[in-house]
Structures are given as structure tokens and as C-alpha cells.
Amino acid sequence: MDGALSSKGRWAGLLCLVAGVMSPGVASASFFEEYMIDPQDGMLDGSRYLSEVPGGFLPVPVLITEPAVGMGLGLAGVFFHESSEQSASKASGGHPVLPENISVVGVGGTRNGTKGAGLGHMGFWLDDSLRYRGFVLYGDANLDFYSLAEQQLNRPVELNIKGPAVIQELKTRLWGSDWFLGGRQVYRKVETTLESQITLPNQEFSDRVNAFLQNQLGRESVTSGLGLLAEYDSRDNPLDPRSGYNHQFHYITFDDVIGSDVDYDSYQWVGLNYWSLSDTFNLGVRLQYDGVSADEGEVLPSYVAPSIDLRGVPMNRYQGRAVAVAEVELTWRFTPRWSTNVFTGGGRAADSFGDLHDDAELANSVGLGFRYLIARRYGLRMGADIARGPEDTAFYIQAGASW
Fold first, then answer.
1. Cβ-proximal residues to 183 (8 Å cutoff; 6+ apart), any chain
2. Are 70 and 87 a contacting pair, CB within 8 Å?
3. Interatomic CA distance for residues 17 and 180, integer angstroms
4. Burial group, residue 272, by CB count within 10 angstroms (0-12, 13-18, 19+)
5. Would the pTM count as exceeding 0.90?
6. Structure confidence by residue, pLDDT tens digits, 142-161
7. How far apart are CA 260 and CA 300, in angstroms?
8. Are 399 and 382 in contact (CB under 8 A)?
9. Interior CA angle at 64 toward 59 and 66, to 5°?
10. pLDDT tens digits for range 278-335
């Protein structure tokens, strides 16, 4: 699988096969030469296929090695929809084209029984003065949790998390600046069941956890939230930034007034920073803080608390009501088409912001990867990363920016 992803010939075969299926009656060789080869450098490039062929899409195979769910496979399709003005221009003038709409559809499953499907859409409307992002997902996931009833466990508890989720946000550019302001909606309807038996250390702890399980598991729980977001975005290309900044702040309240079975607040700050060090090197730094707060006595579902989000670190392995993450990535573009990247990061998870310094769980990861410029028109790169965390090594196929 690794060799197939890093081989130009295998990628060419895959794209040519898709092109032939999407365009019956067209000779594969001539179609490939016209739509899959960039006349500027003679290299494999899907720009014309994605922008000019009706129904053309970028197939993204997904090799799932997420430690939390085990090995698996998936497939996603990415569709680019340009405005009439963009479509009329065959060349991008040396600058990447930001399509008016980008749609994604995908399905996947893993060996431990986890499966899911989803639809996503991103809109850059009114000459990028109005942005929309929305996802509709359905998951049936078997996940290990190391925290239940606000208590840390020495051994993980495997829970099945099943149900639909909707995430939407709409934001508007302020007075032609790099600032955006908007709203965000999150809706999840989840049924949580115990997937495997658990071993509890003592009777008191056993009573508390079992009371939690009896109250929370085996029934559907709805978390419905509305909130505000503010964003500053000066990136040169959101699909593959080389310079600029993207800082976002979200505040969402979940309340029974808007249909939530659990009342709590969620807040997140993400800071993405990119610097072009030279014509071939650029540096990226991600800083992120996630937090949730609730009234005393309010027991939150196991999937609500944020966790350390790093390549190589299993989902939900390090959870807390306050989570901070920092990650740095150095990219070397050694040819116009090919690049390689190295990255490392660390995170902390604790019960509160004040505990992040002294009383927090720690996780670090390190990794490397490669990218290929698969669509020059959009500045879109695709490739793979391999990352090593505290317990496991994971492999990720990437399309677009790492973050």
C-alpha cells in the first residue's frame, strides 16, 4: 500500500481508471493525456479533469491505522465546483484558484467493527466574503475510553458510540478585512452501549461507575448547541498554505432550550501559523486549546470531553475538561511537485485550565511524510504521514493542508 501511494505510475493508473468510468466512449490514453498531464511540466496533474469534466472528482483512498479503532479502509471523493467566472478562466495566472464550492463524500470501516459515512461541503461565496462549512455524519464506532464518571481508569473501557451528527458554521468577512464573524451549530444524537466487560479496582469505585453506566448507557442522548465564532485568516491558500495566519475562536452553549439533554459550554481556540523561510522551506505551528464547563453535579457523556488531537495519538486516549496542544511542522519542497515534511508535537489534558501546568496527562508524537502536487490549479497536494505516539505508530493519507 505504501508503495502504491508513493508511485506516480500507480496514481496515474487509478486516476485514469476513474476518468474512463466517468467518461464512457473516450479513449483512455487520449483522455489521460488531455486531462491528466500538465502541459507545463509533463507531470501527472488532475487540474483539468477536476475543473472541466462534469462529475470529475479526486478519489482519496483512506488507509485507517487510527490506534483507537484498529486497521481499516475507506474511500472519499472530493468534488470542486467553480463559479462561472472561474470556469471561464483556463489558467490560474500563477495563483491557486479557490473554488466557490468543495464537496466531500466518504465511507469507511475498521477491523474492530467501527464504520461510518459522511457528507461535507465548504462554500466560499460572494467573492469569498461569505464562508460556509457543514458536515453530516453517521458513525458506529467502538472506542476505548480511559475516563468514565469523571474518573480516570487504569484500563480502557470499550464503548460503542452510534448515531448521527451535524456540524455547521456560517461566517462573513468584516469590511473586506481578514476578519470573519459568524455562528456555529452542533447536533449529535448518540446511543452509547458497553461493548466489552470492565474490571473495577474497588467496591466504592465500582458503585460509582456502575451508577454512571446505568444512567448513561443503553439510551439515546442528544447534545444540541449553538454558538459564536470569530476568525482571522490571512493564509495565502487555505488548501496548502505557505504563509499567513489562521486563528479561530468558537464558543458554543448546549442547553435544553435548544433540545440538548445535557447542559454545558464548549470553547475552542485554534491558532495556525505559517512562515515561508525560503523558496523551498516553510514552517508551520499549530496551537490549540479546547475546554468544556458544566454546573457542579452535571455528568457529561463520555464523548463530550475533548482529547489530545495529534497524529500518532489515539482518539480519546488523553481526555480532560481542558486540553492544550502544540505542534510544529517543517516542509521541504525539493521540487515544484514533491515535498517532504517532518513534525512533532505535544499535548496536555487535565480537569481544569489551572491543572494543565502541574496535574495533567502528557502525550507527545513525532513523524514524517510526503506530498505531491496533484492539482496545480488549486494548489492541492496529496500524500501520507507516519507518526509515532506514546503507545502506537499510525499512518495517515492526507489531502490538502495537514491541519
1. 169, 170, 171, 226, 227, 228, 229
2. no
3. 41
4. buried
5. no
6. 887 776 655 566 667 777 88
7. 12
8. yes
9. 145
10. 999 999 999 999 999 999 878 788 889 999 999 999 888 899 999 999 999 999 999 9
